[in-house]
Amino acid sequence: MLSFFDDRVFREASHLNGFSGNVIERWSEARDEASFGSALASADAAIYLFLEDRALLRAEGGLLAPRFTLKAAEALGLERDTLILLGVTGEGPRFAGLVRAEIGRPETIKAIDLRSLAIQAVLETHDLAALAQARSYLHWHAGSRFCGRCGGPLHMLRGGIGRACAACGSEVFPRVDPVVIMLAVDGERCLLGRQPRFAPGMYSALAGFVEPGETLEEAVRREVKEEAGITVGRVAYHSSQAWPFPSSLMIGCHAEALSTKVERDAAELEDCRWFERGEVRLMLQGTHPQGLQVPPQMAIAHNLIAAFADWQSA
Ligand SMILES: [Zn+2]
User: Fold this and answer.
1) Residue 171 C-alpha to ligand 1 middle, in angstroms?
2) Please, are residues 67 and 76 in contact by the beta-carbon 8 Å criterion?
């Protein structure tokens, strides 16, 4: 007998996107205030360290190692009150913390931003995903010092799962900001745009924050209309990507164009036009005659564009 899921087209494309594949069991419900100390005392506890928004890595024989023991972390300037318990893995508990900026560190310790680490694909998938989780949590804790209700100071809750106010009892938890990123498609062509901050020759899918009170599909239609003047009909979900800059969830969709005249929002985009499938294939392969390109493989935009470029009607 078919199960509910057997009866559906089930393709989890999200695993193509960088920062996917997190194996940390967050233990959100099971943990209490004592969990932090007992996990930290574990012999196989390991810490992901950050210098502001960059991950610290130890260069070892041509490889980069992203996890540190508590002792090593303290030698590198760990600020103990930033330490949070991310959760547990089959190989032990995993923590994250910030190091003080002013401390000198050996040459073998590198501070690298997560975008570069994802593009270079130098870490194991699960470590890169854990670093994304760590960066979002550390950023949230650093910016959540005071209670939004009464103004009192917030303290860490259950090893960093949230923060709480001693004065009024409010509890707050990290939020994730949904962003729609969509590739509008008109038959054999797709719509790509260029923001002024992009690298020369780079074109990508359009994107924008979901606003309060709208569905994902409505956000896709609004953004494509606002940025390119194109009317969108059907919207098909493709995949999602945790985007820790600082704490977004990119939700990738294909969008059926119902109109074709591009009216670009000049404040957002310096160019926006239709690209034929053949031209997009050259951009993906890195063989475009004018050197035009699309975002790297770790980016959800790349995989949205590749799904369109690779598609063939039966
Ligand atoms: Zn309060």
Assistant:
1) 8
2) no
